Amino acid sequence: MDTSVKFESAKWITARALCPSGTAIFARRFFVGSGLVRATARATAVGLYYLYLNGKETTDALFTPGFTAYDHRLMVQEYDVKAWLAEGENTLALSVGNGWAASEVQFHIYTDHVSVIAELTLEYADGTRTVIGTDESFSIYSSPVLESTLYGGEIYDLTHTPALLGNASLDPTVTTPTVRHQGEWIRRQERFSARLIVTPKGERVLDFGQNLAGYVEIRMQGKAGQRIVLSHGEVLDRDGNFYNENYRDAKSLATYILKDGENLLRPFFAFYGYRYVRLDEYPYDEVDLSAFTSVAVYSDMERTGDFHTGNAKINRLYQNVVWGQRSNFLDIPTDCPQRDERVGWTGDAQIFIRTATLNYNVKRFFEKWLTDMALEQEKDGAIHRIVPFIHIDKDGSDRYAAGWSDAGVICPWEIYLAYGDKALLSEHFPMMKAWVDYVRTRGEEEALWLGDAHWGDWLGMENAHIEGCLYGATQNDLIASAYFYYVTGLLIKAGRVLGMDMREYEDLRARQKAAFRKTFMKDGLTVLYPKYDGLATNRPVMGVTQTSLALVLRFGLCEESERAATAAHLAKMIRDNGTHLTTGFLGTGNLLWALAENGQMQTALDLLFQESYPSWLFSVNHGATTMWEHWDGMKEDGTFWPVSMNSFNHYAYGSVYDFIFGAIAGVQNAEGTAGYTHLWIRPTPDPRFGDHLYASLKTENGRLSSAYYFEQDRVRYEFTVPKNTVATVLLPSGKYEIGEGSYTYFETK
Ligand code: BGC
Description:
alpha+beta, ten-stranded mixed beta sheet, seven-stranded mixed beta sheet, 14 helices
């Protein structure tokens, strides 16, 4: 499909020479005659832009044109702007800032200057049309946004009167194809009011009660020259003082210089990840809390999921999962919204994607991100660890990692499972296949992935006693080979859905399993294969870990006859560890499923309800309002994990909700189906959820739900099946095949 957008007469312009900070305003006057029937504006930028007509913003969308693979494509936004125009003289202005393209992102800057292109097409009743495009006739004015970078934050001076600096220069250096907008628009969402804390250090800190990505809006009367400076933080330290050392080099400051009278203070080109702000500068002794609002900003996806139980802690955990998504689905799926990263780490996205589909409709969101992933796939099939790609390794030596780059197969497949849309699968099948073929070429054995550097079971707990150790003890080669087997299986499934002959890959898969079992397994358990240590870290590795067994069970690398004993061994390891998990990013997403699917549901539930560290509810008990990157981001005694890597808003462990929905509310796509048109409903009631559990999801056919309620001596189940949907319900009393409608069943406790 050709998505290219050509501008008729507009040219790329820049203020590079006159506005070195990157923020600037371009403007031009133009004439509108009588009989205007249509007015359309189109624009994009290398950097960020806002389009104004006669001083008014023409959209409520933020951060346009979004974050794409800037070497490959820039998305063009189109606006119907007739309502903003009047007959006679009008002004078109473009306010630009650095954003993702011209700020430092993950130690790299894509471009050293901002450029913009825009075109306004006026169509009249008599059939004539006028096109006003950016060119050297546009004037450049200084911007009241004095500075703005993604990590540094923004300085906005409301006393600043834009000064005419000269004329725009053409920028022939931009050669990136311009394409139609894809994905969701980024918009302002929930709003929170503040509570004032005076900390033991005597600092004034506002607590908005919810960690999120967005900004603090301030509306207040001011006097020209007064200043407000806000520092942002996610947590208070154990003494109750403001803390944001975990932001690393992201200064995350919001600086405002007020004008006389009413002031509306908010950033234009920066966002922040925070729950608290410290008033570093504030002109008054009294703080008028009603002036402050925290505004969440994220991609405007449709909310489709709903979940609640009779257990307040589990409900909070679910809210934290949802807020992890809200905070990290700001145009691309990011690792975290606060420190000097905020990039599209593929491993985080793949482990969370099923959960993401159960909270929001993320089809368009992932379509956009996967387009960039496919565009950036290397000729040899390699998929980057970060999409849009950021060149973080100068020698390019370890760009491709198991469990991260595998997102290139897992994400298209999960989007297909969630929405049943074959078009996306078909579009990305070449990417999926090329990735599997790439891994075949790695190492000396086609059927295994040995010897490369990986992140492995990132942040796994076995080596938690080594201060600051980021790596679990599961062997990287085992993880890489297990994931290779898993994604080859998904490729085969995708090929079959698309009617392709997959025999070559079926044969590969059989060889993968045999080689894996020979190399990494004995008697249904995993063993040490010490030939390589993947990423050569100074950490101990172990033959059997919770993660190694979880992957073997989940991906089907053990024989059916071994399953029960392997799962029993895994459950015993957990029990012997005081019913605690030791898994990192990759293991955690698979652990509860591996137990539940293999006769160890009780242990899975015990882990879910575990409250002592490490566990999901540990962070809830410590006041978390989002998912933490580490199980022990904040330790029992209130001290923190080292500042080098300690985010309180990383959604990876939020993957637990796909287990809650799929195995406890018990709703899944029946084997071999997609898009929730044939449901498999098998709920698992547990009194620890309190008096009830309710989960629902809006699908294309309507809302489905699965709920149960504990009554005096019985359990009442309620299910809703949308139109054009059938469900197979499995209850202790039997199996029921049902169609559209609402159903109630009773079972004795
Ligand atoms: C990020 C992670 C990411 C990882 C790669 C970290 O710095 O924050 O979430 O997946 O690097 O191991």
